[in-house]
């Protein structure tokens, strides 16, 4: 989990509080007793543990909890955990070394032994790579929606497919689908969010299957109640299981990440209560079955969408009467903070679960918006630059909401901002002119990178 949310605090508020841990290092103690010691260098050496794996209590510097510790019953040998910020070190206690070797082996960056290396996945650059894309845009018909398969449209330039993201200071293991599935043995990865979350889900299905026909992959939507209702265009989500490794990947549509409850169930035109402070029922019901949960929201937070869906904001079980909160921007912020707080409260009792909040996917409409003739016609990759140098996220709402919690940020905003040529643009599978989609991405394409970053941080 080399997530760098704490690192991104650098330069803002580098006080001595634990919340500003930049790099957490681990010194081994009694390492020779540890069965995994052959993979671990000498006791004098130090290991960087991503600070995002530590939950620091800013009110009390001696109270620090470390998520993986909750999984560990016995201590064969111990490590001393220290955190370093601006050259100062603090000692936080000890933890069993097994936790480090077995649960989070990729966290031990043995190449960085003595010098401190800081990892922020969102900082780095796009580089051309002939091993991209990870699957063919002509294939993956089992999971890839035709509307997002740019190879099936009139588009002729596909140079946007040939890049990968190289973080500045993080190891990015090359994606290898069988290794990935083995790592995800008996695990369930859930995406909950809007259509951009659905894109990320389809991307991961294509990556995991290599885009090849995979008749053995089982549709397990029913287990999660994901079946098409009568008269519906599609179900609320999809769930598939790779039988060899018993890995399930699912998606549930929840554009606002709030609980939606029709006010009159027997009336098809009823208003819908949108509970800003209550996670979707689906999430509450199935949370204990997830090992990895990836959330996103953002583009449905506008008055037009709320009105069209007849969503009526509710707080504390009642219609919202706070005018300030009723402003879309505030309601969105309130909802995001609420759901992060709820998940943070759930994580101690779900020790196998890792939760990521994906930052907003940028839109690239120029000379207008989606409904006023905006376009995104550039096809030349990275014409606006290929690097992200900033430390902080371009999505301060998500960055702020997860700050100091056990929920991790999957920061893709600035990275994707550089890829305006990767959208659907005016191409469509039917070839009819008209709309410009500068919101959704071609697949294969940018969301594949989001998944590579996710996998690197799992
Ligand atoms: C801080 O936490 C430590 C260990 O949990 C506890 O002993 C101490 O009383 C706490 N101090 C304050 C000020 O809460
Ligand atoms: C684990 O560590 C604690 C405190 O350091 C010690 O009291 C206990 O005996 C240890 N347990 C085992 C199984 O070594
Ligand atoms: C598949 O994994 C789940 C846990 O995610 C487990 O409960 C189930 O027993 C496994 N099924 C098989 C056939 O191994
Ligand atoms: C719910 O809708 C049905 C059908 O439109 C209507 O007959 C009924 O009166 C409504 N119930 C309430 C409590 O408004
Ligand atoms: C979002 O909500 C949090 C928690 O209530 C608050 O601290 C923060 O200032 C809000 N941010 C914005 C942009 O409104
Ligand atoms: C995170 O929280 C700490 C402590 O409350 C604060 O100093 C810091 O500015 C916050 N960072 C962000 C990015 O919100």
UniProtKB/TrEMBL annotation:
The lineage of its organism: Eukaryota, Viridiplantae, Streptophyta, Embryophyta, Tracheophyta. It comes from the Eukaryota. Keywords: Membrane, Signal-anchor, Transmembrane, Transmembrane helix. PANTHER family: N-ACETYLNEURAMINATE 9-O-ACETYLTRANSFERASE, PROTEIN TRICHOME BIREFRINGENCE-LIKE 14-RELATED. GO terms for cellular component: Golgi apparatus; membrane. It is a single-pass membrane protein. It holds the Pfam family PMR5N. GO terms for biological process: plant-type secondary cell wall biogenesis; xylan biosynthetic process; xyloglucan metabolic process. Residues 172-456 form the Trichome birefringence-like C-terminal domain. Belongs to the PC-esterase family. TBL subfamily. Residues 119-171 form the Trichome birefringence-like N-terminal domain. The keyword Cell cycle does not apply. This is Trichome birefringence-like N-terminal domain-containing protein. The chain crosses the membrane at residues 12-31. GO terms for molecular function: acetyltransferase activity. It is found in: Membrane.
